[in-house]
Amino acid sequence: MLSDELKKQAALAAMSEVKSGMRIGLGTGSTAKHFVDYLGAEVAKGFECLCVPTSIATMKQAQSLNIPLTTLDEIDRLDVTVDGADEIDDRMQLIKGGGGALLREKIVAAASDKMVVIADTSKLVEVLGKFALPIEVNKFGLGATQNAVSAIMQDFKAEGGLVLRQQNDAPFVTDGGHFILDASFGRISDAKALSDELLNVPGVVQHGLFLGLCAKAYLADANGVKELG
Known about the structure:
Blueprint: H1 3-14, E1 22-26, H2 30-44, E2 49-53, H3 56-64, E3 80-83, E4 87-88, E5 94-95, H4 102-110, E6 115-120, E7 133-137, H5 142-155, E8 162-164, E9 166-167, E10 170-171, E11 179-183, H6 191-199, E12 204-207, E13 209-210, E14 214-221, E15 224-228
Helix pairs in contact: 1-2
C-alpha cells in the first residue's frame, strides 16, 4: 500500500480525538497535512474549533480551509495537538523535526493537554536514532555550537556525523530564523541524558527529541491502523 494512503488512514483515525469546541494544535509535515484537510472538511460542515498551527506552511493550509486560528499569546492551553513523527519507539519517545518545524511543534505540544502522533508503521523503531536528530541552533556562534554538539556526539558514541542542513545551496532557515544541525547517532541509548546535554549548550535553541509529550499514536500499515498508548 502506498505510504501516502497509510498517512491518510492514520490522520483519519486521529479525527476521533477531536470534538467540536476544542482548541487544537495543528502539526506540520506530510501526515499532519492530511489531518488538517480532514479537519477543514469538518469545519465546512459546522465543526467548531480554534487552532494553533506549528508552522507557516500549516497556517497557510488552515487559512485556505477557513479553519479558525489563534496563537498561544491569545490562549494559554490546547486540548490536543495532532502531529506526525520521524521516529517513535514503544515508550512513546519521538524524533521530530525532519521538516524543520521542531521548535514550534514542541512549544505547541507542551502547551497541550494531550499530544497525538499520526504516522505509518515504518516510523516505529526499537531504538531512536537511525533518523538524524534535528537540532535547532542560533545563527550566532554557529561554529562553537557545532563543536559542542560534536563533543556530545562523541560522548554518546554516535555512529554518524553532524551536518548543517542546506536548502537551495544555502543554510536552511527555520520559521523562527534559526539553523538546523542534523546529528546522525545511529542509536540513542539514553534519550533523556542526551536531551539534557544538548540543552546545556548555549547555542542550542531546542532539539527534536520529544520526551514525555506523546500520549497516543495512530500507526497505519496494510492491515489497518493500530493504537499505541
